[in-house]
Amino acid sequence: MRLLSLLGVVLLSLSAAAQSGVGVELDEVVDNRVNAGQFVGTLELRLKLTGSNLDRAAAARINVKEARDDRGTVLSDGSRMNDFMPRDYNMGTLQCSLATPARAAKSVRVKGTVELFVPARDPSATIKIDNALSKLDKPLAAKGLKAAKMEITPLSPNGYVELMKSRKITDKDIEAIRAEGKKRGVDEKEIEMAIEMAKAFENIDTPPSQNAVILSGRKADFDRIYRVEVLGSDGKPIQVGSRSTSTRGENSVMTLDPSEKPPANATLELVLLTDKARMSFPFELTVPLP
């Protein structure tokens, strides 16, 4: 069932909206109240932001701190963090997923924050690395990366192959997975299924294209990156058809697939999610259920 609010539901009180300069309105509710064995529904909210600060923001996200229906059912404990979404994605709306409300519930109370990412607020949020692809399989050298305490390495095709070999699941890894599963009380069949699934993912690994830009580094560092652009000799971004990041343990690999082979003197532009580039605003709302 879908409920499209024609009038919109204002999430912030007028006083809070006036203080923050950011408002949140309900655009749509999708209520799938299902609770039958392993089949559990969700409550999906699509939210629209309003305010004077939005024109400067590159991205935004909704972080729910607490959500309960009017029957007292906890729909979110605040442990899940949403990713930043570009402001030009999905007409600027944001998705929020909650657990399914009680069958008799008629409304849900949600508290949280709206977080804006505004790179212009922090000059150190953008790092440009000249001639980034001229020396492959060696960590990039740039003042911005050093200041941010990040280490990123562009990989050659051979370097990528060697890295993938080192990430193969070993017998030691399998034993560690089994031990962790038993520690958490996971059923033996589920543990074996997880192991087989991990092996299957290894077998379907697709080699990168000839144009691919492959970056390797610590997961913690890649978690701080909002976006990477490849700039050509003219200083303009080269169109990237697909982007992906895979993680194994503490290591991550980001693969960019440009529409053309980047020149050796290409520049990499990294946009970082720094604290100074973020703005946070509280919100609170009551959502009527269909």
Core attributes:
19% helix; alpha+beta; globular; Immunoglobulin-like; single chain; four-stranded antiparallel sheet; 290 residues; five-stranded antiparallel sheet; 39% strand; disordered N terminus
CATH architectural name of the largest domain? Sandwich
What is Rg? 23 Å
| Number of DSSP strand runs | 18
Determine the N-to-C terminus distance: 7 Å
> Any idea of the CATH topology of the largest domain?
Immunoglobulin-like
What portion of residues belong to β-strands? 35-45%
How many helical elements?
A: 6
| Biggest sheet descriptor | 5 strands, antiparallel
CATH class bucket of the largest domain: Mainly Beta
Say which CATH homologous superfamily of the largest domain is assigned: Conserved domain protein
- Overall body shape: globular
Order of SSEs, N→C?
A: EHEEEEEEEEEEHEHHHEHEEEEE
- Uncertain ranges: 1-19
Q: Give the number of domains.
A: 2
Arithmetic mean of pLDDT: 85
